[in-house]
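Appendix B. Chain record.
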Amino acid sequence: MRALVQRVTEASVRVDGTVIGEIGHGVLILVCAMQGDGPDVSAKLAAKISKLRIFKDDAGRMNRSLLDTGGAALVVSQFTLAADTSRGNRPGFSAAAPPEEGAALYETFKADMASLGIEVASGQFGADMAVALINDGPVTIWLDI
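Structure tokens predicted for this chain:
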């Protein structure tokens, strides 16, 4: 799985103008299931993100995790993270898991995050979404698991 994690002070996602998920302090996770991924990869990604030390401690150093701070996660599916731009200007997305598998892994990933005690809000798989965020730092981390 591939994820882009952004530390945020707030984030939300809308579908057809209606907010369907929002959080305050925490992380926005744009996530993409890749060909060959399974539930084990989802669990590993959730554990990694939950323990990423990207939040400031009392000394102002990035030393605390999402679990340490009690922050929330807004999880948004984004198959375009699988983009291959090595041949020309039109990205190819064949490295992404097929939609049915991607949807199942997206649901598994949200459940894996929640099972760690993290409050999870989400977008809608396959929908045309509008995502708003205030990136705190800015801090943005790319993960391939």
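Further analysis of this model is presented in Appendix C.
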